[in-house]
Amino acid sequence: MNAREYILTKQQIWAKSNNIPLIGSKGERGRKVYTTNLDHNLLEPLTIQTHQCFQAGDGNELSGNPAKMQALHSSSAIAVNVFQYWQTINQVPAIASACKLCNPGNQTSQEIIFEEKFPIHESFTTAPNIDVVIHNQPDNNIKVFAIECKFSEAYSVRNDNHGLKEKYLQIDEIWNGIPALHTFAKSISPDDTAYHHLHPAQLVKHILGLKTKFGKNGFRLLYLWYDVPNDEGYQHRQEIKQFSVMCKQDGILFHTFSYQGLIMRLVKTYESEHQEYLYFIGNRYL
């Protein structure tokens, strides 16, 4: 079974076991991997703030019938299910620590924002959306923990436009202080033929936007992905390691963690707390 099929089947089994009706992307047509309403796909409904974040984002996650976020394999849905809870109960430092972005007991993390944008340069009319951004106290050296979340996309058929557009290489100033990533960026522009599961061009753009806003040492970037126990999963892990090496050469604080590893860490840390939350994410995603 290929990786995408593994994820879709696992999610369909979860839906069936919880008596959640499913529809196709066109209602009665298409594979039945969409919930009939958004709340059926979430641990808890979107808060007003989270809803506004996704409405302002460029992914159109809440548009359509069904909406993208109603997909069982939606990366935005899994991000909301894992992270929104901690914002709701005002315990943002707990999830930041669980992600290994800070030490246990660290209380600097204050707020979680979804789909936040950090412009790279004034010459660009758009800025990439970062899935989850944890904002720290203003006097903290690390201003934000930025998190790129991947579910099934890493195992989907690659499009031809996953390279880095040449316009990014035409502005020298945005590459100051990151020569290894600059050299790497040239190798994936305009086409990326080396990476089949990781989307490094997207990560490079996130780094550029975060560096422009906070400086090279003012952020941590986490790549949070769903692991699959087959050859595709292994290849994905190898590509992540390769990209991590280049970030380390430039002193970029780039981290990686699987959703499964994060959930197991949360379960181990909170054995007698947050039972409804832990049961939902563990039963669904482990």
3D architecture notes:
The chain is an alpha/beta fold and 286 residues long. The protein has one domain (3-285). Helices cover 38% and strands 14% of the residues. It is built from nine helices and seven strands. The protein has a five-stranded mixed beta sheet, with helices on both faces. The chain has a two-stranded antiparallel sheet with strand order 1-2. α8 runs antiparallel to α9 (275-285).
Our Rg estimate from Cα atoms comes to 19 Å
Quote the average pLDDT: 94
Count of discrete domains = 1
Please tally the β strands and state the result: 7
Oligomer: single chain
Measured as a percent range, the helix fraction is: 25-40%
Q: In sequence order, what are the helices and strands, one letter per element?
A: HEEHHHEEEHHEHEHH
Q: How many distinct helices? A: 9
Going across the biggest sheet, name each strand in turn.
3-4-5-6-7
Shape: globular
Helix/strand structural class: alpha/beta
The share of residues in extended strands comes to 5-15%
Distance between the termini: 17 Å
What summary fits the major beta sheet? 5 strands, mixed
Low-confidence stretches: none
Essential attributes:
alpha/beta; five-stranded mixed beta sheet; 9 helices; 286 residues; globular
